[in-house]
Amino acid sequence: MLKFSYSQINTFSNCPQKYKLIYIDKIKKPHDSIEAFLGKVVHEVLEWIYKEKMSYLIWDSIEKKYTEIWKEKWHENIYIAPIRKKLDTNHFKKMGLECLRNFYKNNQGPYIDFKNVHGVELEIEFMIDEYHFKTIIDRLDKFENRYEIHDYKTGKSKTHDDLKNDLQLFIYQKAVESFCDKNKKINLNWHYLKESSKNKQHIKIFKNEDDLICHKRNLLEKIDRIIDARKKEYFPSNPNFLCNWCYFWEECEAKKQYNEINPSILAK
């Protein structure tokens, strides 16, 4: 049985060739973009914060934890995309720390509220119609009358209108619906940690029934395209802006055709 996820569906939409390399050929690359590495470290620190649940969490503790994880997880295959070649590793390290500082400031640090936290890095397997899904939710809060899904982003922020059409939010909601009380509402919270302003950083979404019907139709259409491509074994490459952050240069048909090599810069 095929098991779907948002990242799998998003990868196919961006580049069917990359989908094939990852999900069918099962090719694993040791490379990380510096942005992806930064995001992983920030998420790990946030997970630590919500698991430790300190009643008084000073900023120095967060900075120390961030530095420890950055050093511990650093590896020799982290690259800076050529489009970012004017920036160095220290720039990205400071950026991740600033994301955490924005979070700390906008969540009442040092008195961060933990009382309604139901789970962090919550793995959920569920069904949407006949399709099997697996997802991981950064944080889930449980209240008497509702659930609050929280997702943290260290990349470029989106508008409220953009997020109204975002399938990732829909998939998270369906995941929580699979086990929650049907009488509880589900709110979706996006945290764009690069933003220092709380209004810009924290965007809350509630999807009505029409939204959910539209999203489900859109999702099933994307799944149909994936299944059709697998039957036909047709996965064309789609060279685009995202190629700057892709490390399948040796395997990708488009790159082989032009005999290109990975121009990314080794981060140090």
What secondary-structure arrangement, pairings included, does this model have?
Blueprint (H helix, E strand, L loop, with lengths): L2 E2 L1 H9 L1 H9 L7 E2 H19 L6 H15 L4 E3 L8 H18 L10 E12 L2 E12 L3 E8 L6 H5 L2 H11 L7 E8 L5 H4 E4 L3 H24 L20 H5 L7 E2 L2
Parallel strand pairs: 1-5, 2-3, 6-7
Antiparallel strand pairs: 3-9, 4-5, 5-6, 7-8
Helix pairs in contact: 1-2, 3-4, 3-5, 4-5
Describe the model:
By secondary structure, the protein is an alpha/beta fold. Among the domains are: 31-115, no CATH class; 117-205, no CATH class. It contains ten helices and nine strands. The chain has helices spanning 6-14, 16-24, 34-52, 59-73, 89-106, 160-164, 167-177, 198-201, 209-232, 253-257; strands at 3-4, 32-33, 78-80, 117-128, 131-142, 146-153, 185-192, 202-205, 265-266. Strands 1, 4, 5, 6, 7 and 8 form a six-stranded mixed β-sheet that branches. A three-stranded mixed β-sheet has the order 2-3-9. Strand 5 and strand 6 (146-153) form a beta hairpin. Helix 1 (6-14) packs across helix 2 (16-24), helix 3 (34-52) runs parallel beside helix 5 (89-106) and helix 4 runs antiparallel to helix 5 (89-106). It is globular and about 55 Å long. It starts with a strand and ends with a strand.
